[in-house]
Amino acid sequence: MLKSSSAIAAALVAALTSAAAAEGELNLYSSRHYDTDERLYTDFEEATGIKINRIEGKADELIERMKAEGANSPADILLTVDTSRLERAKDAGVLQSIDSAVLEERIPANLQDSDNQWYGFSQRARIIFFDKNDVANPPMTYVDLAKPEYKGMVCHRSSSNVYSQTLLSAVIENHGAEAAKGWAQGMVDNFARDPQGGDTDQLRGLVSGECDISVANTYYFARALRKDVKGLTPEIEMIGWVFPAQEAEGAHMNLSGGGVAAHAPNKDNAVKFLEYLASDQAQQYFSAGNDEFPAVEGVALAESVQKLGEFKADDVDLSAVAKNVPEAQKIFNEVGWN
Prior knowledge:
Elements: H1 6-16, E1 25-30, H2 37-48, E2 51-56, H3 59-69, E3 77-81, H4 83-91, H5 101-106, E4 119-131, E5 154-155, H6 162-175, H7 177-190, H8 199-208, E6 213-217, H9 218-226, E7 239-242, E8 252-260, H10 267-277, H11 280-290, E9 293-294, H12 303-306, H13 318-322, H14 325-335
Parallel strand pairs: 1-2, 1-3, 5-6
Antiparallel strand pairs: 3-8, 4-6, 4-7, 4-8, 4-9
Helix pairs in contact: 6-7, 6-14, 7-14
């Protein structure tokens, strides 16, 4: 990740507080469902005078809505979770390319679309968790999860989940489609139960004894370190974790990000909002409020996130990873990963 530039940061603050910015409105379509994002919106409104009008819903529904609205869409910004959905929005033609020196400087190249249609603003590492009481030698890489020694021990989400799709898409990008299919088959062979539930359920499976090993995004675990999560926090000391592939590609990262709508009626305000999300202030909210990793290097981490320790992140181009999703879905179908 790139380090922030003081000059760019100063210019960003000046732009946000300028008289030119203090007018109009912004229509935000968002599938982020976190109460802590309220601070992001109110601070932007106070700094700029730009009023944010929000429409919230599931990502795919919002994308379909923007398609149906066409040139008459009031949407200025689409915010959503995961690279695959951002790429889906791009493929649907509901985003547009923008020019922003601020975003180019502050958001690492591998965390943004190659055509500048979407940018990542926060990250979650998808890592391996295990029962410390039952697993003496946990898998150290994603590839290791498919080893026969872990047969009947692994819990994971279904193939219809975007996190599963993006992880397999990254395996394809890093190791090739043939190796990825072998890995997916090994995962299916090692499942402790049929894929089900969300990431918190994968972690609760360790507590209940249904699983010895599970895969989940870090912010679900960090949240349970910060506050009480039913069925998880009281027994959290029994859970160990591994940042995979530290001697190879590094830990796979999921993105939360957004882009400017194709027919944005308030395009200038939309660009200002994305630039605000790249500011140190907003980046700190992503970590402190939702236990995520900032996209911008050098931004302070929340205590809950710091407890996870330092690690090497996979710096694969996530725009390229997103393009592998159709191949990943084909592999899921072939190996019977439901």
